[in-house]
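Continued from yesterday's entry.
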Amino acid sequence: MSSSENPEIVERVFKEEEEKEDKKDEENGGFLKKVKGFVQDIGEKIEETIGFGKPTADVAAIHIPRINLKTAEIVVDVLVKNPNPIPIPLIDINYLIESDGRKLLSGLIPDAGTIHAHGSQTVKIPVNLVYDDIKTTYHDIKPGSIIPYKIKVDLIVDVPVFGRITIPLEKTGEIPIPYKPDIDLEKIHFERFSFEETVAVLKLKLENKNDFDLGLNSVDYDLTLSDVNIGGAELEKSAKLEKNGISYIDLPITFMPKDFGSALWDMIRGRGTGYSMKGHINVDTPFGPMKLPISKEGGTTRLKKNKEDGGDDDEDED
């Protein structure tokens, strides 16, 4: 009787083949483990001998060097420390800025430089937030508001022995969506009146529509009365414009009434005088200095004289 006719012999042959395969796999697996362990031991010995180690990083600071109604420039300072005896390349920097889990901006900076051996280096990551993009994407973000943000940064470095390493970093903060103030020239108060030269004070009303205070440092303006440009000035002026509040400032001005022609008589009689005004205010904010535009077209104001000139004072005008 042949072996194929004996089930016990066939089963024994199959078992012997399986045992041979299992033994072969164990031998191969054991060999690979030995090789892996050997390489790891060599790496550890090299690390101990030469002093290789993993670099560290931290977000040292976040700056807003420039901010206006259109954009905010943000610079993230990341301090990277390299404990190794050789320079290590900073291969890529991935960054993401989000607010309440919503993406505002992301990007990649390739080939970001080299970190010196046994040294530290501050890597600057510049990003530019465009407010129109944010307001178009997220309609609930209103001008004048302050929004929270989170910056996520992944530094990818190449270190001998360790290979490529990703160092994740995070930092949170707040950033404003600035809004320009509303202005109104409530009245022009004559200090000294003559047809050749008149010295007056502009009583300017400023409404700060932002959720943060503005510290006024200076103002520049150009004024037109009754379609006659009477010039302007750039003045240093200190005042606190409280958030969501109204403030008043006085601006001195000198002009020649004779340039107004027949419109002068309407002005002297105290009738409403049309005006337009434009300029800028330079302010300090909790987020850094800003230069904000001010403008008013088609406004109406009043001219008032001092009592000694035969006119009304501020208390008699309303």
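--- second protein ---
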Amino acid sequence: PGTVFCDNISYIFMFLTIATSNLVATSLAQQDKDKVQHQISILLFIGLVCGVVMFIFTRLFGIKAITSFTGENNVDIINSANTYVQIRGLAWPALLVGWVAQSASLGMKDSWGPLKALAIATVINGTGDIVLCRFFSYGIAGAAWATTVSQVVAAYMMIQALNDKGYKGCAISIPSPDELLQIFMIAGPVFLTMMSKVAFYSLLVYFATSMGTQTIAAHQVMVQLFMICAVWGEPLSQTAQSFMPELLYGVNRNLSKARMLLKSLVVVGTSFGLILASVAASVPWLFPKIFSPDPEVIREMHKIVLPYFLALCVTPSILSLEGTLLAGRDLKFISLSMSSIFVLASLLLMLLSSKGLGLSGCWFALVVFQWSRFFIALRRLTLSDGILYSEESTQYELQKLKAV
């Protein structure tokens, strides 16, 4: 419960990463290094403030939040989870500052710095778990300390990576009301989009839970595999967010090259998605006993392999399309379309569940959710007056960016 609590709450602040990479990439496209430094400084300040707020929240309300999550009767679990959460809470400021610094590097088209930080943090976390838990018997506290130290080290390395590029990674600035509004205009729709996805996945769990122990066990296995595989498409989204602003709003903008880049991303996403989904679907189909020896659980897993494949294969392409929309700051459309898809897919989910279609109905609702995202984003980007085709639309957006 402690791990789920920390990780789920941290997901709320993912808007900081997207806002950072978007603002940095756009300013670099305009060849304004001073503006890049200023934006990094104010985003570092926001990340630090959010981290301190979360640290205080964890101290004051951590145990109450865990109790509401696990139930009052699980005293041993609550105490252990609270120990974990309180230790992890020490790293909140470093975690969010590190995310901002990492996203700034990605916005500068530098993936090597974040990769090194991630690799070293992973080694520290894994080694710390083994040493503290196995040799020193610190238990859950040892696991928490290992994660906390790894996050602090990763944040330091991310800040150092900015320093190496000639920026001041430790400089912070208090944003003005106008700057806060600009960040909110990016972060707000992104937050709404992310929450729509989280809410729909939560609804899937809710409906699956009412179908029995074996069914929820099968769903849990498949949805965890889906989440693990889905993030493999994130580099396509980050590539779009890092390279598209230069082609859309840069000094030497080129919409033709932007369209070619999107085409390449979609082709790569489609190919990679088919390969990824094929491999990911074959594991529970051919080797289900890796996850559970229960014949009923295996039967339920086999029932949803097809919708699992259909939902996963399109995910990398979705991320490349939505990354392009984010790069083009078509934020109002992203938030409205995702909210609409969420509502319609939720209604479909309730309808299929009421018809007694079981877990298969839930997963086919996910298929509709995913493919709706794909087709709507694709349609938006191929409109003749869209950000990739209309010089007037791009010029208008460019003037708005310069006015900020």
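The CA atoms of residues 284 and 290 lie 8 Å apart. The chain has two domains: 1-175, 178-403. Will compare against the first tomorrow.
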